[in-house]
């Protein structure tokens, strides 16, 4: 399942890097020549269907690969596919119309839109890759996807960001189509031009309709959205070397609007909190309940520490050692999707310990050979 999710992600990137530009080129040639050959129409239709299907299939496979997310029904997959089919169709037709008349300005528009979308994604502080430059390259690739359709890459409510994106997309489609209608060549009759304009408008309207259908009736989290619930679930962790572990953890779904699955992970470095004060009442009880299960990592003070150390009253020598978090898995050797859950709980544990200890906790991973490997700075395992 993990491999299937990774492969689907690669196919999604391949589709928007290859099929989407080819679709715009094919439509532009057909509009410029004012003729549509059967093979051209079939090829363009296949490209459009592949783009819509890759987004819908990726969302389904990603949800199926995560135990903390409800699976997506086939009705929801069909609704999401129709949503992206019509919105991408309207977008590509508007691109082809404008490119058939203004080739140079179309290139300037695409580059400008891509730069704006890329900076917007970078501003959202995604964390998908291991290094800063790899993250920037990933954001640049996602910026190409944003030229054609919406793709959520950040955890949390996405209603405002999605509304802003589709508002900008609608304005751009109207401007591109209006510019083509005004400066089109004499070989295109007024009646045919009006049909094309209505096609773009109706396609975008149908895409918006199916998007509302998906979020209002077919979203997997719809029945439980906004409700307070929490429970312990078992999540299998399969390491690259065949190491199998079990995480028992209490997972509380995020509150807010319904959002699609995203590719995200905790920050690569976790800065030390300053003057956090006392923990929120009830937080220690939650952590104690979570520790009553069998987590992958265990939190315990070092052998030279004492209970007084946790209350910041220990001696200076002992305070320098601080608590130790031992993770019974090799570092960066287990699936990235399971690492999402491990990192989330590891970050919560570090924040809790930093409020009770004068020294940041030490992190020890199991070595692939023997013994343990210690890291002095928290880094994401993805």
Automatic annotation (TrEMBL):
Residues 272-292 have a biased composition (Basic and acidic residues). One of its GO terms (biological process) is apoptotic process involved in development. Residues 256-324 are annotated as: Disordered. It is found in: Cell membrane; Membrane. InterPro entries: XK-rel, XK-related_scramblase. Signal peptide: none annotated. This is XK-related protein. It comes from Menidia menidia.
